[in-house]
Amino acid sequence: MSGTPLRRTLVSLRPPGLEPLLLAVTAAALVVGGVLRLLGMPGLADLCWAVGTASAVVPAVVWVLDALRHGRAGVDVIAVLALGGTLAVGEYLAGALIALMLATGRTLEAAAQRRASRDLRALLEHAPRNARRRTGSEVRTVPVAEVAAGDLLVVGPGEVVPVDGRVVGDPAVLDESVLTGESLTVRRPEGETVRSGAVNAGGAFELRATATEQDSTYAEIVRLARQAGAESAPLVRLADRYAAWFLPLSVVVAGLAWLVSGSAVRAVAVLVVATPCPLLLAAPVAVVSGLSRASRLGVVIRDGGALENLGRARTLLLDKTGTLTGGRPRVLDVVAAPGWQPTQVLRLAASLDQYSPHVLAEAIVGAARTRGLHLSVPSDMTEVPGTGVTGVVAGRRMAVGQLDEHAERPDWARAADNRALLDGAAVAWLSVDKHPVGAVLLRDPVRPDAPRTLRRLRAAGLERLVMLTGDRAEPAREVGAVLGLDDVRAGLTPAGKVAAVRAERESAVTVMVGDGVNDAPALAAADIGVAMGARGSTASSEAADIVLTTDRVDRLADAVAIAVRSRRIAVQSALGGMLLSLAAMAAAAFGLLPPAVGALLQEGIDIAVILNALRALRGDQGERPQLQPAAEALIHRFAAEHDDLQDVLEAVRDAADDLAEGTGPRSLAPVAEVHRLLTERLLPHEYAEEHELYPALAPALGGPEATATMSRAHAEIERLSRRIATHLALAGPDGALAPEQLDDLRASLYGLHTVLRLHFTQEEENYFSLAR
Fold first, then answer.
1. Could you tell me the residue range of the domain that residue 94 belongs to?
2. How much is the pTM?
């Protein structure tokens, strides 16, 4: 293949081979033979079935010889013996069925191999092809393969960094999500290292190359993906594992029957009833049924081997951003300076940010619009990538973004910094006339469906849950603590993730879940790679065995539940069918079953095990509860109300904070406003949940007791609300509180805020995550 060395790492696709042709011939022979039999022409029907059977013998022998050459022997060996046996005794219909099943399995296997060879394509599409090299005052575009260490390069806005290097001159603002999976942009000052594959999210900057293309970070990711895919052990089919002992047993029994009786007919009869239809038919039917059910839930599984392996998995490794979290920052809190209100700070920040494409700006504007705030139109706007936005709103010069690191910060600002550090949040500061007046704290929240999903995964048999992330340790550990993970490994490079996957594979069948290009090597290295395909990268989807096509991590729990159940049914069907076949083999060996009768008996066994295997099409208690459309509509309604009520929760906490300043009418005014918000907005919402949402959810959750704990939270919210109202009623004629009331009112407000946040989170995790 022509091109640079990196381009030549792409593995060429395996062209379609004999398998599809064989599938077409065997299917046609079976169908035409069936039609001829119905038309009363049994002789021609048998001829068609015999042709279909014979067409599979030669390729099956070739496949067996190839497997034996590589030290493997599986169900195909029994299939060859069975095909020959059916031709020998004239059981052509059975032979045609075996031929069709063999061709179907081989065709699916070949298609999976061709798809697996594409796992590097998307990685290479993202790889930079050219670089702009500066020599003196001249800038020329050259192939990236010609870049040498020491060259001075220019990286324009939106361009991919071609090679590793160091920033020269103005700072660089980069989107490194391809490398780390984190959605927030980073600022790299002069002299700091920049890795290839990052995207320039700011203005043009100069880069001094420190490595060639082949020695740079992105090329290493490509090599890791290729190496990990090559090292992954091939999946061993369930049928092949059972064939390992069933094959020699069948041959020994047939040989002994021939040796003892001196009759070759008895040996053929043994082979006929030993025809591995429970393996060739029942196990694949159960697995394909599982694949079909998974696809209806938005889970695309590459092949039956991946489903079988998923059912045996015991360790789950998960990326953080975009997998356990939403991948998009959301406003966590708004802190206001004395004399300013949080809603005022959010409105002004959103007014400035509404024309900015920055990911934090989008979150701030979205939060303001969700709360119904009216945004002003700014003027004289400028945006400096990595620093923030400045402009004029209502006649005053304002800025949203970073504060000067060396400027003196007031007490409230230091408290906001500490809060951000504790919560692992980013901070967007609002300044008016160069003075900070507020801060918007933003964080990538845990997916509402993640806690329930992880509980279901543990219930399905996964024993070890580990997070692998390129993010900082503080936010990673907080997410791990909230979700109850067994281990958290932060600050990992793509190579570090691959090393962690390999280490876990040594002790258990391992699943890796991710969504970014940086996850592709780890997905390829795992026993089963799962990609979040709805918003994830093409590279991760191509490298994965399983793709979740909807932006819901709970589909992974659905997939595991389906895989476990399908595999259990496949094992039941295969073992049950083989036990019946063993009994029939014993009867045939003693001459009690002639070949023709044995073939009919074998067909009966096949029908029984196939009907059992079809149970995999039905649902199971381990899957997600099924809701009625009316219940789902209520969930969407109350989820929207949760977003609308966030300002009420902030008002409750702010009123408690204000009580520290005194007990006069001015301090009680926010408390009176909170009482109004509770009475007019929050308590009606809680009452409606109790009497509309919970009864609608009870049937799917197992009865009214399933919502009893949440109902108790409603009672506590109402109790604290009444307590706050009582304190207001007890205030003196001058609107002041007695000293003994102050501590209790403050405790009631803080307690109500805590209960509300916990209650909202529990409802979102346990109930709202059930909706599609």
1. 1-117
2. 0.63
